[in-house]
Design a protein that fits this description.
This protein has eight helices and twelve strands. By secondary structure, it is α/β, with parallel strands linked by helices. The chain has a five-stranded parallel sheet, with helices on both faces. Strands 6-7-8-9 form a four-stranded antiparallel sheet, covered by helices on one side. A three-stranded antiparallel sheet has the order 10-12-11. Helix 2 packs parallel to helix 3.
Length: 233
């Protein structure tokens, strides 16, 4: 059963999300606060595929929950819920390790489409591990292992989220090729993605902070002005 933790302090919104996810075939666990979310996550031994996480909550907010979840699990999918006026919050959530965000108010079809797309990524990663998928991609100092979802730089492990891993896989599979934002968006988030292309830029920034010696002067993930990005080893 596909299992989701929904963390939202507003009862009406939480019930709306839960009902629509259940109709789409997901098993849903509810939490009405950040404290409750972390408690239930740990009680159930991290037995979740995806967490839907509201940003603005009393007590422990969504940013803190996201940070804590990422410390414990880099493979779980995280979708942040934000209001239209919280533009910087969206960027902050992505920089902390969220995979996607949905802006309130949202339609049931948009929410389910975003969850389905993220679930497919999580399930694909698990399938590769279970099937002992052993293929590696090597480029200069970097080795990307597609079975255990790890990235090594000069033998040193770099922890990646699901989205970061997929972007790296796409870049390393197309060395020297200028990939536009739409191509990256479609490959990683899916062609039915409802969101904005800037989610690509935020994730690239996050990746550079992890892999580049000087993120402000990148040598590997190169900006192709007016288009997108390319990989150089």
């Amino acid at each position: 059963m596909k299992k989701i933790l929904v963390v939202e302090d507003e009862l009406a919104i939480r019930e709306f999300v839960v009902i629509n996810l259940q109709r789409a075939g997901y098993e849903v666990v509810e939490a009405d606060s950040g404290e409750s979310a972390l408690e239930k996550y740990r009680e159930l031994n991290a037995d979740f595929d995806i967490v839907i996480l509201d940003i603005m909550m009393p007590g422990i907010d969504g940013f803190t929950v996201c940070r804590e979840l990422r410390k414990e699990n880099n493979s779980i999918g995280i979708i942040m819920l934000s209001a239209k006026t919280q533009e910087m919050d969206k960027v902050s959530g992505l920089m902390l390790g969220a995979d996607d965000y949905v802006t309130k108010p949202f339609s049931p079809s948009e929410l389910v489409a975003r969850v389905d797309a993220l679930y497919r990524r999580v399930a694909l990663a698990e399938m590769r591990v279970e099937n002992n998928f052993k293929e590696e991609i090597k480029s200069g100092d970097f080795t990307l292992n597609l079975r255990n979802r790890t990235l090594l730089k000069n033998g040193r492990s770099i922890i990646l989220t699901q989205v970061e891993f997929q972007i790296m896989e796409y870049l390393l599979s197309n060395p020297g090729v200028a990939l536009n934002r739409t191509q990256i968006l479609n490959h990683v988030w899916g062609e039915a993605y409802f969101g904005e292309e800037k989610i690509v830029d935020v994730n690239i920034r996050r990746l550079r902070m992890k892999i580049e010696d000087e993120p402000s002067v990148p040598k590997h993930i190169i900006t192709v002005w007016g288009l997108g990005y390319k990989w150089e080893s």
